Structures are given as C-alpha cells and as structure tokens.
Structure to design on (224 residues):
C-alpha cells in the first residue's frame, strides 16, 4: 500500500517554464489537496478536490491549475514559473474530509 | 489573515522533560483541531486531534488541551524523547468545511 505518491521529489525550473507535479493515491480517497510550504509560513492550500471532476481554489491558487479526471490522480500544473513559486509542495488525500489527511513526501521546487 | 497561529517558531527541551507547544486561533467556527508532526524530507503525519466539544484528549505520551474561551490549544509531550524532534503543525477544521487551515509550525528540539 503506497499511500500518496508524489513525483518528482526535486526539480529546478527556469523562469517562464511550465511543469506538472504528479500526485496519485491508492486508498480510494475522495478528497485530495495541494499545499505549499514556505519557511515560517506553514502550509498554504493551493487547490483541493472533493471527488473526480470537482476542484476548487484554496488560499493561494494564482499561477496554478489542477484537474481531477480520476479518483486516484490529482496533478498540479504550473504555467510560466516564477521565483515566488519556489517552495515545497505537498499533496494529501483523505477519505473522511479533514479527519485524517495522508500526505505525500513532497516535491521541492526551485525556480531560478 | 492568519486564522491559526503558532507564535513560537522553535522550542528546545531536555530529554525526559515536558514539551508544551501552543496554538491560538481566531475563528470561533472551527470545530475540530489536529496536530501533525513532520520530519525533514517527509510529509506531515497525523499525531492527535480534539473535537471542540472536548477540552482534553490523550494518547500515550501526547495530550492535547483545548480552551475554547481563550481560543487556545496546546500539545503536551511527556516525557520528551530525542525522536520527538520535528516540526509540529497545528491545524483546524471549519464547521461543515472540508479543508484544514494550518499554523506556521513549531520546531521542537529534544536534547539528550
């Protein structure tokens, strides 16, 4: 049982490039989330999904897009990367709303 | 506007002593609170939680206290162990909500 798997673990992007952060879970969870962690700022919610085909913005959605075509996958797309998007990104899933997130191990992204 | 605040960025404690991590919140509509623990290069993992209808929840060495009138909760670790050294995040769920709001985290160092 892999839980929540994020790829890649590390990535360096140049300003203006695009990339997709992958997130997949094998627990048949309906709820999935993308957070970013900046030093001293805790975890900020970017986007979330309560089921396949349903997504909604979180606290800091600008510069990102998501899709949820299957229960298992919740990719996060960065278009036109900016230095402000340098962060550690965490994907999480839950089968019971907020009562028990399972997090992935994170993707450390640097935009130069 | 930070709805969940952890005002102590770090805490250092001697092995065997008590660790007390604090968290304050501003939104009276939060109905459930959680603590997550995070080691370097890993995703956060769930530690302990408390419903707003309770004032204490205990799980082994970990106890969470909730003071609703003061909008304050705390995590007590007794006795502290070197393996407890990690970042601790306080999180809160909004009534009828489906996403968590996280604090900035507190780095706990337990010295042996």
């Amino acid at each position: 049982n892999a839980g929540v798997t994020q790829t890649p673990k590390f990535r360096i992007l140049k300003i203006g490039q695009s990339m997709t952060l992958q997130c997949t879970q094998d627990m048949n969870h309906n709820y999935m989330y993308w957070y970013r962690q900046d030093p001293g700022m805790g975890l900020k919610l970017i986007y979330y999904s309560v089921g396949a085909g349903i997504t909604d913005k979180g606290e800091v959605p600008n510069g990102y897009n998501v899709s949820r075509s299957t229960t298992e996958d919740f990719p996060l797309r960065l278009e036109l990367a900016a230095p402000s998007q340098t962060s550690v990104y965490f994907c999480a899933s839950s089968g019971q709303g907020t009562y028990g997130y399972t997090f992935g191990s994170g993707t450390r992204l640097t935009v130069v | 506007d930070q709805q969940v605040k952890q005002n102590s960025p770090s805490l250092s404690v001697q092995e065997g002593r008590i660790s007390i991590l604090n968290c304050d919140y501003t939104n009276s509509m939060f109905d459930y609170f959680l603590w997550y623990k995070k080691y370097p290069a890993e995703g956060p993992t769930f530690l302990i939680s408390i419903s707003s209808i309770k004032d204490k929840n205990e799980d082994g060495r970990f106890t969470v206290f909730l003071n609703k009138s003061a909008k304050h909760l705390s995590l007590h670790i007794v006795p502290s162990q070197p393996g407890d050294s990690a970042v601790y995040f306080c999180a809160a769920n909004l009534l009828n909500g489906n996403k968590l709001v996280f604090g900035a985290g507190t780095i706990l160092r337990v010295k042996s």
Chain B touches chain A through 25 residues (CB under 8 Å). Chain B has a mean pLDDT of 94.
